[in-house]
């Protein structure tokens, strides 16, 4: 039986998120993919908001159905099986993953909490208040660590499946690896951490951040716009208006919006890299270097909080990622990180996990209005979970 036009519209709308997409998708784009006119969409949906709500319904109902056995597995102390189910679901429904991230990160931090509560699902009630504030920081951090780790490795798996198929490990082995990292961490069984040394690293990073140069005015304007409306809302017109410049003068220096963003914030990446190099230069063990990387990131975003949204966007935006990846090999982040760890200590995926996870979690904490000292304490907790997993929590 042929799909109805209404169903084709819904599927077409979701299809834009099979590749991570943080831009608002227009009705004209959706109509073009279905092969109908924009006006024809209004025969099935009153407006764009009605279509969005139908997409929300489709996503949430599917996720809730998936999570029922997952919760049971967690209750039965079978976290590995539970995590594997979530990963396989996200891999099978990559359009749902893309849509979920787009809505949660770009348009509404409480998107999934609100939609679940609307359907009587109470899993967040003891963690997040109705106004979006955090009730239980420990449980929230635990949830963020597991959730963002699953999301990061799932996205990496999807990317490798699209671009690096010959090196793709079997699915079960992949799921087992992610479960192992979450449960046991990356440290060896006999590893230990000197908490006094972590305090020393805190002080090193706090002092070093004071030496960085002020932000370029144009970069700060771009960061402010992205923080308010996301990359999707960033236009050359808005940048020019905020700077009091003609749009044509910006185009004389840059080919397009992506070229402008990547060129202007490249210096910020170099600043962060230089800070990391300096802060870990006197450290010996892998765990000290790992913690210094995370603490350096925190100090950087504490000093320049407007850049958090740019970095979160960049992590999920393939167009901008490709712009940065088209560099000489020795300038790539994965190669850069390998310079500071033993060759057999970390794979490329794990190295980037170390870099990405703090950005994803810190962003959530800062968006929810937690004080900087509370966020800084959470740096250690995330670090310890990365090192030793959640089994000891």
Record keyword descriptors for this entry.
393 residues, mainly alpha, 20 helices, 69% helix, 0% strand, globular
Report the biggest beta sheet as strand number plus sense, adding barrel if it closes: none
How helix-rich are the residues, as a percent range? Answer: 55-70%
Indicate the structural class: mainly alpha
Count of helical regions: 20
Proportion of strand residues:
under 5%
Explain what you see:
The protein has 393 residues and is mainly α. Helix content is 69%, strand content 0%. Helix 5 (79-92) packs across helix 9 and helix 16 packs across helix 19 (348-367). It has helices at 5-15, 27-34, 38-41, 48-75, 79-92, 94-107, 111-118, 137-163, 171-184, 195-208, 217-229, 236-243, 247-251, 257-280, 286-303, 307-316, 318-325, 333-338, 348-367, 372-388.
Give the helices and strands, then pairings:
Layout (H helix, E strand, L loop, with lengths): L4 H11 L11 H8 L3 H4 L6 H28 L3 H14 L1 H14 L3 H8 L18 H27 L7 H14 L10 H14 L8 H13 L6 H8 L3 H5 L5 H24 L5 H18 L3 H10 L1 H8 L7 H6 L9 H20 L4 H17 L5
Question: What does this entry show, briefly?
Answer:
The protein is an all-alpha fold and 393 residues long.
């Amino acid at each position: 039986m042929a799909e109805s036009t209404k169903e084709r519209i819904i599927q077409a709308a979701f299809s834009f998120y099979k590749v991570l997409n943080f831009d608002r998708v227009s009705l004209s784009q959706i109509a073009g993919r279905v092969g109908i006119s924009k006006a024809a969409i209004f025969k099935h949906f009153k407006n764009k908001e009605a279509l969005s709500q139908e997409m929300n319904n489709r996503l949430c109902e599917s996720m809730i159905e998936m999570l029922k056995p997952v919760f049971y597995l967690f209750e039965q102390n079978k976290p590995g099986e539970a995590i594997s189910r979530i990963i396989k679901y996200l891999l099978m429904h990559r359009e749902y993953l893309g849509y979920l991230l787009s809505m949660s990160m770009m348009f509404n931090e409480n998107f999934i909490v609100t939609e679940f509560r609307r359907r009587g699902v109470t899993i967040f009630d003891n963690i997040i208040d109705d106004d979006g504030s955090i009730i239980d920081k420990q449980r929230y951090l635990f949830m963020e660590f597991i959730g963002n780790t699953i999301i990061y490795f799932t996205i990496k798996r999807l990317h490798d499946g699209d671009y690096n198929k010959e090196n793709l490990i079997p699915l079960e082995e992949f799921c087992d690896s992610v479960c192992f990292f979450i449960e046991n961490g990356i440290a060896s069984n006999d590893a230990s951490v000197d908490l006094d040394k972590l305090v020393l690293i805190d002080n090193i990073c706090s002092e070093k951040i004071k030496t960085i140069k002020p932000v370029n005015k144009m970069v700060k304007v771009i960061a402010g716009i992205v923080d308010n409306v996301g990359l999707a809302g960033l236009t050359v017109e808005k940048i020019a208006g905020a700077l009091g410049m003609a749009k044509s003068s910006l185009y004389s220096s840059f080919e397009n919006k992506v070229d402008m963003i990547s060129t202007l914030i490249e210096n910020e990446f170099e600043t962060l890299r230089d800070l990391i190099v300096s802060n870990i230069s006197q450290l010996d063990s892998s765990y000290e270097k790992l913690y210094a990387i995370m603490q350096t990131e925190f100090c950087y975003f504490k000093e320049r909080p407007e850049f958090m949204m740019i970095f979160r966007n960049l992590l999920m935006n393939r167009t901008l990622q490709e712009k940065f990846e088209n560099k000489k090999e020795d300038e790539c982040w994965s190669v850069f990180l390998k310079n500071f760890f033993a060759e057999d200590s970390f794979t490329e995926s794990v190295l980037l996990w170390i870099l990405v996870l703090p950005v994803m979690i810190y962003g959530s904490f800062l968006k929810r209005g937690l004080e900087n000292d509370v966020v800084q304490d959470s740096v250690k907790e995330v670090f310890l979970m990365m090192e030793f997993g959640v089994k000891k929590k």
